[in-house]
């Protein structure tokens, strides 16, 4: 799991902002928000333009480095903080796998260009590489039984790229090691790679309730047509308060069409409300990424009545206990101990600080406190 994340000099985060999943309070309620003594369900509040979306993109930056396909549109215009004189952004990830702590950190000059990267396991350096000076330390690879990787080939590749297009993405040494070494099945590097590859971000608010072209849903409808999947989607809608029965029909042209089941079949996509379409889009994203290790859900409840938003959180807590899910919202109705707890509710300020509610007041917050009322009355104002 991800234990801690830090970023600085990235977009609107001039100073270091830290997300600490290991800072768990001693609360005895809503224990589903905690997995392996780490916060696994987190709700972030923030006024407009505080950087909630940017925080998600920063968290997923490591996935963009390791993947061959970019998740986001180009951020080249404003990747570094505009008010800082620093020439690089710093990203630091601390992971926990069983008894091992992995620290992976790197500096980036731009969206595509790494300056350096470093990996430590249990406090011991595994490798360091500077892409500008070519300074390196690969001595720790032996301890992870990754010494078979031919580092000279990596150095040759880096030297041959000198002078190439500055916008060509830098190849991280971490990716090189994983792709070019015969690692054992229980290798800590494979665990790290697996976690990174299963990190995902869902931006529901930007078009979550919009009907998209029919072809957009073809793969999803194919999946729903498999055993029990349609029933799972139907159950999801019923849990969300949309009472319905669904049926999938095969059309003469080979396509599949989803219907509400009544005395006469009613086409789902043509008659569903924007709220129901947003639930479809949310479920599609959850279904396609149901094996996610970490899921950042930006404006997850933008199209929902507050009761439905509560149902979504309950569904996520029950259905994805092992996944670290971070949700952003403006909905203060969700700021309640009925759903969450003070150590899993956070405020992102205009200054770029992230503070748990339990640390945003001198009071000792308990289950009986009305957190929404405290928020509206200004209890946490200095942390906004």
Spatial strand order of the main sheet: 2-1-6-7-8-9-10
Low-confidence stretches: none
Main sheet: strands, sense, barrel: 7 strands, antiparallel
Tally of DSSP β-strands: 18
Which structural category fits the helices and strands? alpha+beta
Mean pLDDT: 89
Radius of gyration: 23 Å
Order of helices and strands: EEEEEHHEEEEEHHHEHHEEEHHEHEEEH
Strand content: 15-25%
* Helical content band: 25-40%
Q: What does the overall shape look like?
A: globular
Helix segment tally: 11
Distance between the termini: 28 Å
Q: Write down the oligomeric state.
A: single chain
Can you offer a commentary on this structure?
This protein has 384 residues and is of the alpha+beta class. 26% of the residues lie in helices and 23% in strands. The protein contains eleven helices and 18 strands. Strands 2-1-6-7-8-9-10 form a seven-stranded antiparallel beta sheet. It has a six-stranded mixed beta sheet with strand order 11-15-16-5-17-18. A three-stranded antiparallel beta sheet has the order 12-13-14. The protein starts with a strand and ends in an 8-residue tail after the last helix.
Q: Which keywords apply here?
A:
seven-stranded antiparallel β-sheet; globular; 11 helices; alpha+beta; 384 residues; six-stranded mixed β-sheet
Can I get a quick summary?
By secondary structure, the protein is α+β, with helices and mostly antiparallel strands. Helix content is 26%, strand content 23%. It is built from 11 helices and 18 strands.
